[in-house]
Amino acid sequence: MDLVSSLNEQQAEAVRTTEGPLLILAGAGSGKTRVITVRIAYLISERQVPPHQILAVTFTNKAAGEMRNRVANLLKGFQLNSAPLLATFHSLCVRILRQDIEKLDDGYTRSFTIYDTDDSQRVLKACIKDLGLDEKKIVPRVVRSVISAAKNRGEDVQLFTSSVEQTDEKQAAYAKIFRLYEERLLRANALDFDDLLIKTVKLLRVSQETRDKYNDRFKYILVDEYQDTNSLQLALITFLTEKQQNICVVGDDAQSIYGFRQADIRNILEFEQHFPSAKVIKLEQNYRSTQTILDAADAVIGNNLNQKKKKLWTQNPGGERILYCQAVDGEAEARFVASKIEAHRSRDASKRIAVLYRTNAQSRLFEEALRRFRIDYNIVGGFSFYERAEVKDVVAYLKLILNPDDDIALLRVINTPSRGIGKASIDELQSMARQTNGSLWSAIGDVVEGRSTAFAPRAKNAIVAFWNTIEKLKAKAEGFAGTDKPVSETVIAAIDDSGYSQMLREENTDEAEGRLENLEELVNAAADYDKDPEGGLREFIDHAALTSDTDKYDGNAGVTLMTIHSAKGLEFPIVFIVGLEDGVFPHSRSVNNPKELEEERRLAYVAITRAEELLYITHSMRRRFYGDEITAEPSQFLNELPLELIEDLSRGPSWLSYARSYGMGSEKRTPVTTIDANVHEKPRAVYTGKTYNSADAIAEFFKNKGGRASRTGETFSRSSDVSRPSTGYDRLRAAASENARTGRSDRDDDAFVPGSHVRHAKYGKGLVLRREGTGDNVKLTISFPGFGQKKLIQKFANLERA
DNA sequence: AAGTAAATTTTTTTT
DNA sequence: AAATTTACTT
Fold first, then answer.
1. Distance CA A793, CA A160 (A)
2. What is the distance between the alpha carbons of residues A575 and A584, in angstroms, rounded to a whole number?
3. Cβ A141 to strand B below 7 Å
4. Spacing of C-alpha A629 from chain mean position
5. A451-508 tens-digit pLDDT
6. Which of A610, A622, A733, A791 is labelled catalytic?
7. Residue A352 DSSP SS3
8. Using CA atoms, how far apart are residues A661 and A366, in angstroms rounded to an integer?
């Protein structure tokens, strides 16, 4: 078998370069996964590397599973006596910690519990309450993200506390909560997601013995999606590869979309500094998409200032134009998408289709429309199976079997199903636990053994009954060990003996019926661990904690709905990118931060490059938001697409027809200078997507206006001849805003108050959103259709009422 | 203590 | 608009 013969020159080189540090810069669709899997197979079959010495790290279980399958396929017919380890960062850490965490000697034991985001947040909520802080001002969710960010920067409590501005009341409170949170986690023998990495890195740092052990175990290490690694992950890799330096990382800086999780794009940009003597191989031939799709992706990403230059090319045909639709509202957008999907499916049902959106909340409308069209779909994300209340409840019983000190698990189920232990009893137990600095379970033990007089007979009986339930469950689980169904029988016992199934049956509703079915699913999932010699109850629970919803993506599904983040690494013949609206995509929380806006743009790049043959983009003019309907403006990313690549399927006039008559029309009369002509070879309309949203930039622009025309000034100074858009789009917009707008226009020409409509020489008509400052310093935030939000100084902006 | 009504919050993105 | 949390009632 010749593994490398099917690869192009660069790919083959990447496979053959097995020794020393190697960075593979792999553009979208350049056969990255193929290179990784062939490389693993090559190491085993050509270089006689024992499989267990190979470690490949990914971010999702799904990616790991996919690689496992492909490697198995490549090595079919080989007799192997071990397997390469294909793991996520988190599952790798759990593996290491389950063996060696006690070497840290910091109180944690090998039977530690994993707390997911929800569990962490519950702990934090309790911490905030117990510290007597105002829950209105200190939001658990925010505290969690602050602490998580600190942890991912590599800061512990001490470091965080000293780095915090002590005079800042909130920051000081966060530090206090952080400290208490860590204490509570330790007492419960629990680690949160971030701790899994932190503890592993710490272990490798302090224990030469452990470091040697894993260096000797893993002689060849591969890391996928390297652009998404953070400093902790870099530290982990650095320690693991200390001896051999056989580290191969694969990534694409243009697809870095996890900055919010502290992913540091510098890891990939500075790989050669971190690993001297590193070799770099670029994969630039795209095998996935049509030229049209690549041109569109390239044009959008070209607006980012921070990027490594690379030129993706393809031998694929040009393909069809990008299909575009502007809908009147979210429902119409979903209807358009569903009807197009229906048409495609009836023509050729083998073509997989994806609907990609920025936020999970957008899925609902598309689900409803697809159901109405009777189209089967698969949805990824949102509410994960393991996040369902009934599943988490039963898993909590299982967690208590292995670690009764897990307070969060205990609180979850102490009165579910209700067994007469109410708020008052729980409060009492918690104060007992606080006094002895023990867990709730130890407090319950005190009650059972009569060391507490705080409870009335009825309450005491209820607590004893709960204690009995858990103790019996523990005994039963031990009894199942050694049988042929240790895990699934234990799960069944947890469901039945806890009274949970009885509770659901008595409810006698369709909803309860569905919950029972979910629990049956849980038993099925557990059964997989019965067969596996390496799988026990512990592994099953870990799996439940570390399995994201992205992992259950069904690669064979005809229609899949998911966020763009979840879609990374996937490809589809037909892709719909929906909700291309200002504030939705790019997200409103990112528009005012240039760094985050660039990340949004990379997200757009990822979305576009998922498409193989056909790409649809849609947006709607109105959208429901927190219950009320608002006017939605076209995304600035639309302006960054080459208009000639787009075909308009909108009913009636649209942003595109508006943009065309405006941009193309003026182009005929005067050649248009593009702002970043070096990036785009083709002449483009004045819609360069360049934003002038800082006060300085605006002032600069208007200064240029009167004098010598600079390149940017030139683009702008021509705008007077297009200041009266008379297209249908304008009328359409006017009609729409008539109904939609909540503000009022002012009778005074000078008062551009929020809600009023204005006209700007360059941007045309817009809606005033915010007004700040007084006198000459009045700044207005205005949303312009097709340009997004702009912050303008009223004095310079030369606005008219519209 | 449990069920219901009222009030409040929620929309980034994920291991 | 929907979901979650809190606050009243029995």
1. 39
2. 18
3. yes
4. 27
5. 888 888 888 889 999 999 999 999 999 999 888 899 999 999 999 999 999 888 887 7
6. A610
7. coil
8. 31
Separation in Å, CA A127 to CA A60, A268, A398, A587, A708: 31, 38, 25, 32, 62
- Peptide bond preceding A671 in cis form (omega within 30 of 0): no
Distance A514 CA to C4 C1' (A): 21
Rounded distance, CA A697 to CA A699, Å?
A: 5
Q: In the annotation, is A285 catalytic? A: no
Cα angle A627, A629, A634 (rounded to 5 degrees) comes to 125
Q: Which amino acid is at A502?
A: Q
The full length of chain A comes to 802
Residue identified by tokens 């009045």 is A778
pTM: 0.80
Q: Give dist(CA A365, CA A737) in Å, integer.
A: 22
Residue A453, CB, strand C, below 7 Å:
no
Model confidence pLDDT, tens digit, residues A24-36: 999 999 999 999 9
* Cβ-Cβ contacts under 8 Å for A296 (sequence gap 6 or more): A322, A608, A615, A641, A642, A645
Any residues with CB less than 8 A from the CB of A714 and at least 6 apart, and which? A673
- A355 closest CA partner among A339, A166, A739: A339
Upstream peptide bond of A276 is cis (omega within 30 degrees of 0): no
C-beta separation of A312 from A28 below 8 A: yes
Give the β-pairing of A220-223 and A54-58: parallel
Statement: the CB of A587 is under 7 Å from strand B: yes
Q: Is A395 exposed, middle or buried (0-12, 13-18, 19+ CB in 10 A)?
A: buried
Residues 214-273 of A with CB under 7 A from strand B: 257-258, 260-261
At position A779, the amino acid (one-letter code) is K
Q: Which of A224, A406, A407, A599 is catalytic?
A: A224
Return d(Cα A297, Cα A608) in angstroms, integer. 6
